[in-house]
Amino acid sequence: MYFVMPHNCNIANNGEKIFSNAWLRPPSQIGNTLRVSQFNVQQITSFDAPELEPYRTMRRSVEHAKQGIFVAEGDKVVQRLLESHFQVISVVLPENRLEEFRPLLDSRPEKINVYLAERKFLVTLVGIELFQGVLAVGKIPRTFSLEELLAQSPAPRLFAMVEGLTNAENIGLLARNCAAFGAHGLIVGPTCCSPFLRRAVRNSMGAIFQLPIVETPDLIESLRALRAAGVRCVAAHPHTDKKTLSQADFTRDCCLVFGSEGRGISPETLAACDEAVAIPMAANIDSLNVGAAAAVFLYEAGRQRQKNHT
Prior knowledge:
By secondary structure, the chain is an alpha/beta fold. The chain has helices spanning about 55, 60-65, 75-85, 100-105, 120-125, 145-150, 170-180, 200-205, 220-230, 265-270, 290-310, and strands at about 10, 15-25, 30, 35, 40-45, 70-75, 90-95, 110-115, 135-140, 160, 185-190, 215, 230-235, 255-260, 275. The chain has 11 helices and 15 strands. The strands form 3 sheets. A 7-stranded mixed β-sheet has the order 1-2-5-8-7-9-6. It is elongated. The protein starts with 8 loop residues before the first strand and ends with a helix.
């Protein structure tokens, strides 16, 4: 049995229609708490309202990160946000897609504001004709501590760590690779951009919502703590002749350390690792994109571990 509320339509001061309690699902008993899920739907023709400012300023993602929020864009990213434990503040949809998203919206524990607009109006916001018109604003959660990450990760642990990565798209791709190849967490150094910038969230394809993130203020100290906990720290370094990827042992607890494409891993961070390992490449190529390098390292770690269990 569903408790369906009438779609009572009120007129706001700006003349826009506001639909209150657009959908109310049956109460569900969780422990001793009675939970009722609901969301409000409002038709919009502009983003002038104060509560819509994150969408109006969506290109200012650094400012958003300082406010503890992020903008998600695209069908899959918003769907995965709604499926996650992250708090969702609001969602923007083309008018004809509310029913498609209704089950996900209805499953949320919090009250969400859903704004509907014509798709052609949403395209003008982003400036891309292929834009799907699906957006959401979420709250950046409290990130994990290194101790929490170590405690919750099953053995053999597999972590990735990154230093000096300021390109949001690359850090999003790195998060996606971590999730795809079974890493237990991503440790982000203080010289990196936030993994919750809009382009990072978009490039992660929502993987950032399921991957434990540690934002450490001191990368060297974190490496020391990992090594003290028995985690072998392996630097992905193209300029070493000591060991190549296939010669390294990734079957035990390990953390793969990556640097930026321009500067690579700093000498101090390299010295704090147990060893440096290189991907064999053609003589006229000296490095790979950090996302590509991470995918190769993480795949090899997974391959070795699978082989070790057979």
